[in-house]
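User: Predict the complex with iron/sulfur cluster.
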Amino acid sequence: MQVIIPTPLQYEQIVGRQKRVDGEHYRLMTYVVQQPVTDGLLLYNTLTCSMVLLQPDEAADLTAQRELIDRWFLVPQENDDQKLCHQIRQMAALLKPAAKAITGYTILTTTGCNARCFYCFEKGTKPVTMTSETASKVVRYIVAHRGSETVHISWFGGEPLVNAKAIDQICTELSQQGVPFRSGMISNGYLFDADKVQRAKDLWQLQLVQITLDGTAQTYNRVKDYVYRNVNAFERVLQNIGLLIAAGIRVKTRLNVGKHNIGEMAELVQLLHQRFGADERLSVYSAGLLDEEHNAELFARRMQLEQQIAAYGFARKLYDLPKDIRLDCCMADDDGSRVVIAPDGHLGKCHHYLDREFFGHIDSEERNEAILRKFKERRADIEACVTCFYYPQCIRLVMCHTDTICTSVKQQEHLYNMREAMKYEYERYLKNENHYPDSINV
Ligand code: SF4
Ligand code: SF4
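Assistant: Here is the predicted structure with iron/sulfur cluster placed in the model:
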């Protein structure tokens, strides 16, 4: 047996190694995911976050591998895995130090947008644009709350580039004050041009942009329904993706898939490949539109698309294998180290709440604890959770709009992502590679 990802220190400290008991019957823990590779069988444990490789002869008789007991891949037949998971989470939460600084800022430069996608969750939100005065206050707030840490900014909107001036101002003032920062962005990509890409690289410290494509030219232009007339927005956005990756800025292309466009997505992926080749700065992945993501037929077709994406050799860094026990879902229920700043300076915990559920304002140190508690409320387990491999990594929040129900399709998607990530981690292990040192999530 070869250890590919060792057990995290935190887990070692909490439970250590499992003691072997003679005569006990062991089984795989519910949370172990198997993935065959050419050299044998990978096992990843979603609770301990460790991964091992078994040689083919070892894999043929899994429960006889005593070392798998030590590392909690095998547990006694009668073990209550869910109870163990709860106990470990509770202990890990007690040991976790409280955040001393706010280091992650999702900044909405505007809630206005130059596109009008039919599926937009922001539809109906009043457009508010950040003023120069507020941008300066944002800088003051960051300086006062970052401690001595590097700041991670995610530019969000609306369309953040509609108010690129605010980005310029915030980045200029942060640099003048000697604050180390880097940024990512969720954008439709339309408003980039050569000059902005240069500023994004030099001034905004932009590492990664997520850009959504909704189909080939005709469908894309129809779905995005930009406010501009007589332009080929699709072509312009592709040109901008080219400019960004040429400048060394990574682009994560999200293909929003629904019944209306699944038929043409293979053509789109082929087109991206013809245009950009297999460039490690360009990753491509698909996502189901919210009201269609649980459709089994669509999911099956989307997985075929994922195979095509992988076959073309696009960068695959879609989903990182968890490396630690999961204690929170996202920035909404985290330890307080990440906040959302609305265009008018209100402080929030989730970028899906653009005009309500704020817990404070950049002008004040007051915090509405009731709102913060509300964002931490979790959805109850469902019956399927008892046997679900994903349980230790699954935290679903009552306030979350994007994760309201769980279906077998959702579980299959988790499994697919997990297995892809296992293969990817293993390839990296073989090449002795590290992650991008400057990686940033948006
Ligand atoms: S909610 Fe769904 S994905 Fe999460 S643990 Fe339960 S069954 Fe698994
Ligand atoms: S949309 Fe859901 S997952 Fe995303 S930040 Fe909000 S609560 Fe978290």
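The chain has a mean pLDDT of 92.
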